[in-house]
Design brief:
By secondary structure, the protein is of the alpha/beta class. The chain has a six-stranded parallel β-sheet, with helices on both faces. Helix 1 links the parallel strand 1 and strand 2. Bound molecules: magnesium ion.
Length: 178
């Protein structure tokens, strides 16, 4: 069983400009690549777990999401970073314009479903794993899944009780990985 580094996407992998779904709006966060390479060197397996209610809202499709994801994974691979799993939840209980997405889901954070699925696929030891998120719901999902350490990547919000650490950038996360 390996340690996992579970990552939200928007605001963690890329700058959150709200409902990012095109390559031209996808800006990787500063210091991300060396931090993820360091995590790999330390034995962490990487996974992305992302709510994408923009799909339920009709802003973009699942196909567009996965097209962007393939590009993102290619860019990360070119930087020496291998992502073991990408889990996406397209649902939204109230705002969906598609009946098939118009209910809550065990995968939608703050529910733990995506993190449990990532753990099953990658054989992760969740108590020894770490979650990086920029919203409280990311950290709540991590707690519900049994992830041992939660990191709140947020420059402006006060530190929530559910966060073990708060940081303002990936350069600070490197120090928490050991
Ligand atoms: Mg986010």
């Amino acid at each position: 069983m390996e340690r996992g580094l579970l990552l939200d996407r928007d605001g963690v992998i890329n700058v959150d400009y709200d409902y990012v779904h095109t390559i031209d709006k996808f800006d990787f966060m500063p210091h991300l690549f060396p931090a993820l390479r360091r995590a790999q060197d330390l034995g962490y397996r990487l996974a992305i777990v992302t709510n994408q209610a923009g799909i339920a809202r009709g802003y973009y499709t699942e196909d567009q999401f996965w097209h962007l994801t393939r590009w993102m994974l290619g860019r990360l691979a070119a930087e020496g970073v291998q992502i073991g799993a990408v889990l996406c939840c397209p649902h939204h209980a109230e705002k969906s314009i598609h009946p098939r997405y118009g209910h809550d889901s065990f995968w939608r954070k703050p529910n733990p479903g995506m993190m449990l699925e990532a753990a099953a696929r990658l054989q992760l030891d969740l108590p020894r794993s770490l979650l990086v998120g920029d919203r409280v719901t990311d950290l709540q999902a991590a707690r519900a899944a049994g992830i041992g350490t939660t990191v709140f990547l947020n420059e402006t919000a006060p530190k929530p009780a559910v966060a073990d650490y708060q940081v303002t950038g990936w350069d600070q996360i490197i120090k928490l990985l050991g």
